[in-house]
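Run log, item B.
One chain of 348 residues. Sequence copied directly from the ordering sheet:
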Amino acid sequence: MICTNYTTQIQIDRNAFALIICHVVLFCFAAIGNVGMFLIIYRNLRTNHTHRVIILLLHMNIADLIVTFEYLPKQIIHSITKYWYGGNILCKTTRFFDIFGVSLSSAVVVCMCIDRWLSVCKPFSVINGIKRNKIMLIFAWISAFIDSLPQIGIFTVASHPCNELLTQCVARDYVGLLDSRYVLIYTIFTALYIYFIPLCVIIYCYSQIHYRLKIRYRLERKGNNIGGMIMSKPHIPKFRKAKIKIVRMTWSIVFFFLLCWTPYYAAATLHFIDIDYKTGRSRKNITIPSMLSKILYMFATINSSFNAYVYGYFTFNLRDELRSLKIFLTAKFKNGSSSESQKQSQIN
């Protein structure tokens, strides 16, 4: 590399500055929603409202919190500093959690779709619903961990060729330390895990749900018409209304998942088409600008910001929940203060 025109001065252009501002706004939005929803879910679980859907939402929330408090702050700091100053261990750790957060989120979306499919298509399966969901969630965590683990081996800290003091957290194939074909195989596997396999599960589950609900609706209308009247909404059983509401909530989460991730993986598909699979490197016939890739991935992370607001709207009465949460936290704080004062009095 020719280092004649090289400069160490950090310059942030207008586009990069706009991207930083967007990430900061996204972080604030995601932090408020996900922390608030975590406290609401925590209160519900502590007050013995252990419902299989609440358990799924808890794990979805944890995945979104990882993206919120690991990926977004790291991205903001790195966009400002331009170089990596965190060392090799932090480089590998953050890259692991970059993938782990979104992998776990995708896996939980799959769990929610399967749960809804079984609930609608095989109603008696809800008897063991909590146990079944816990098994699915264990598999989700293990598979997300396995999907993220290669990140530790792929990424490393490398020095700038013109200045060894300036380092960057990069993939090892970028600096010639690893065959690009291995990285390509892993990238394709990750794309399948995060987007394409969940997409297939979503299409299958919701086509089955739509088909079953359509048949039930026709049978009910036929039965009601024979009886001489059509049942009005107030006479619909409450549990059926609740089931429809949960289906809508799950569908909304799925919709935002597809809306946010589809543009990024559409661009990734173009990248895969342009790959020379003998070398594992791009032919450069299709060029996607670096800034566009960053914008598309930022748009994908919006999914983790919106999830809390979506399932909060469908699952909880937020006004009542916030009031109950305030009472719960106040009582917990008072109990903690009284127990601490009792300990102090015993010591004295």
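Observations after the first pass:
- The chain has one domain: 14-307.
- The first helix runs from residue 14 to 46.
Flagged for discussion on Thursday.
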